[in-house]
Amino acid sequence: MGAAWFVLTRLTRDRSALLGLVLIVALLVSALLAPVLSTHPDDVFELHPSERLKAPSRAHWLGTDRMGADVYSRLLFGARITILIGVIAVGASLIIGVPVGLVAGYNHGWFSDLLMRVSDVFLAVPQVVLAIAIAQTLGPSLPNVILALSATYWPWFARVVYAETRTLQKEVFVESTAALGASPWRLTALHVLPNIASPIIVRASIGMGFTILTAAALGFLGLGPPPPTPEWGRTIAESREFLPGAWWYATAPGLAIFLTVMGFNLLGDGLRDVLDPRLRRTRTARGARRRPSRGWGPAGRGATLE
Q1: Distance from chain centroid for Cα 83
Q2: Residues forming a β-bridge with 300
Q3: How far apart are CA 253 and CA 189, in angstroms?
Q4: Which residues make beta-bridge pairs with 297?
Q5: Which residues contact 139 (CB under 8 A, 6 or more apart)?
Q6: Helix 110-124 / helix 142-168 crossing angle, nearest 10 deg
Q7: Which of 25, 87, 181, 223 has the maximum number of C-beta atoms within 10 A of its C-beta?
């Protein structure tokens, strides 16, 4: 509890990280309270052709879509789909990537090399392209989108954990614990994994934003959850033929995706600064070298500190 409070306190001092935290909290609140906050909760599955493409008004804050449904209400319920996809996909990637990275990083030999070469094969192909191929093969549905994203993102966790484990393997406390007879499984689970939790948390936070953006791209291409699921990417795709007249139709989900991805990225950057003291020291040293001198040194006014 004390560590969580320390991290939260440090995040609140960083304006960018605080903005990201506020955006994510707003997303979570919108998703959890969608039935309460929405003005037309029934419009998620009901159609109203007579209300088709109505401009924003008191009755419909963000207008209506091509089927007469309230865009604002569908946007709130779409936040649930977005969070569900991001959490499950990143969680599954963690479950796969972290053990692979630990095993490959702690051990040496052909099996470790094989695990890393498999991850390199996945990393050699852009994630979006590979996710599109998998989703196209499996068919458009919510479980298939999650499966495609999980299958393409786990190598990032494996690479991060592999590099950190190899670095930590040279530390004295790891060598001492191994000398005392601790098994490799006990050593990696109780000593290595807790010490590399920080980069894993940072990668998970940034990965949430990237996964949500990729899921929106799949929905835009028609590979996401089928209608009438209120998925943001599909909503943008449906609105293309009505632009620029019905500008609100595409603006609302597009802005929601932008703010969500930016929120996770800003929070990830803030967590990296707080949880990685080495990076923080490096940035401080660089800032000191670039800061102009306030005095009259031998190099004259405005000399930089080296």
Answers
A1: 10
A2: 297
A3: 42
A4: 300
A5: none
A6: 130
A7: 223
State the Cα–Cα distance between residues 280 and 273, nearest whole angstrom: 6
Spatial distance between the Cα atoms of 225 and 85, rounded to a whole number of angstroms: 11
Buried/exposed 45-72: b ≥16 CB within 10 Å, e otherwise: eeebeebebbebeeebbbbbbbbbbbbb
Domains of the chain with CATH codes: 2-286 (1.10.3720.10)
pLDDT tens string, the chain, 306 residues long: the values are 556 676 777 777 778 888 989 999 999 999 999 999 998 888 888 888 888 888 898 888 898 888 889 999 999 999 999 999 999 999 999 999 999 999 998 888 889 999 999 999 998 888 899 999 999 999 889 999 999 999 999 999 999 999 989 888 877 777 787 777 777 788 888 888 888 888 898 899 989 999 999 999 999 999 988 888 899 999 999 988 888 888 989 999 999 999 999 999 999 888 888 776 555 544 544 454 554 544 444 444 344 333
Interatomic CA distance for residues 305 and 274, integer angstroms? 26
Q: Specify the pLDDT at position 204.
A: 92
Q: How far apart are CA 78 and CA 229, in angstroms?
A: 8
Nearest-angstrom CA–CA distance, 219 and 149 = 12
Would you state the pLDDT for residue 261? 94
How many C-beta atoms lie closer than 10 Å to residue 10's C-beta? 16
- Residue written as token pair 């309460």: 36
DSSP codes, 106-148: H--SHHHHHHHHHHHHHHHS-HHHHHHHHHHHH-SSHHHHHHH
* The token pair that represents 56 in the structure block: 């924003």
Provide the phi-psi class of 246: left if phi over 0, else alpha when psi is between -120 and 50, else beta. Answer: beta
Q: Which residues pair with 304 in a beta bridge?
A: 292
CB 38 within 8 A of CB 79: no
